[in-house]
Specification:
Layout (H helix, E strand, L loop, with lengths): L19 E4 L2 H13 L3 E3 L5 E3 L15 E3 L2 H10 L1 H14 L7 E12 L5 E4 L5 E8 L4 H6 L11 E4 L17 E4 L5 E6 L3 E4 L8 E11 L5 E4 L2 E4 L1
Antiparallel strand pairs: 1-10, 2-3, 4-5, 5-12, 6-11, 7-10, 7-12, 8-9, 8-11, 13-14
């Protein structure tokens, strides 16, 4: 028998979607909340046309009308400029995770704010583009206690639940060899970035207060691209 120590001669094989989780500058999050509060029913485009800022019908969430509003072009430019370092770092780390040598440039397609109240929820859904995100700006004070007292199966109230991979078809049965649900616990001034096609949901909560978050979609593009997209409109950076 040799003295070869097998436990040190191994490596982990990364497999599955890459989820990026980071903390943001509290002052930026405060400014972001103020930008969200400035959104109204509609805004004037640079070409003289008006675009709705209330976007309930184009999103999956079961939120009251007016509780989901998109940023206008000026706000979106500010958002993109403020978080450029974060999205650049995310892109590099995601390519590294999947062992890609080429690191693409990216564009931000749209940005919107969500005001989620008690009993409202986001059903399981996916987004367009290549990557999406959620930034938490405000969390109801009673949500932590409600989540700790939650005894039912599945993600707790107000969490974000990512799901991926094989399932048994029976919600009470899980495979012991795979983790196909990741539950993110929302904290103010924190951000998750994830593949747009990754299924995710937000269960309802019952406590008082408003769960405020900012979400959006981005796409990878060639490094020489000088435009970013917002719906069908294009704005020069």
């Amino acid at each position: 028998m040799s003295n070869y120590d097998h436990k040190y001669e191994y490596k982990n094989m990364y497999f599955g979607p890459y989820i990026y989780h980071c903390k943001l500058d509290p002052q930026f999050c405060k400014d972001l909340l103020e930008q969200g509060d400035k959104t109204t029913d509609r805004y004037l485009q640079e070409d003289g046309t008006y675009t709705n800022q209330i976007i309930k019908d184009s999103l999956a969430g079961d939120l009251k009308t007016g509780h989901e509003r998109q940023f206008d072009g000026k706000q979106q430019r500010w958002f993109n400029k403020s978080l450029k370092d974060v999205f650049t770092h995310y892109t590099k780390e995601r390519m590294n995770f999947h062992n890609y040598i080429f690191v693409p440039d990216y564009v931000i397609e749209n940005v919107w704010i969500n005001y989620q109240h008690a009993n409202e929820y986001q059903p399981e859904h996916t987004h367009s583009g290549d990557f999406s995100w959620v930034i938490y700006l405000q969390i109801p004070e009673g949500m932590k206690a409600e989540r700790e007292n939650y005894k039912k199966k599945g993600p707790g109230p107000g969490c974000i639940a990512f799901s991926y991979g094989e399932t048994s078809g029976n919600p009470d049965v899980t495979f012991p060899w795979v983790t196909n649900i990741h539950m993110g616990v929302p904290e103010a001034n924190e951000m998750y970035i994830f593949p747009s096609q990754l299924k995710h949901a937000v269960p309802p909560f019952k406590c008082d207060g408003v769960r405020i978050s900012v979400s959006g979609n981005g796409a990878f593009q060639r490094p020489d691209s000088k435009l970013y997209v917002m719906g069908e409109k294009r704005y020069e950076v």
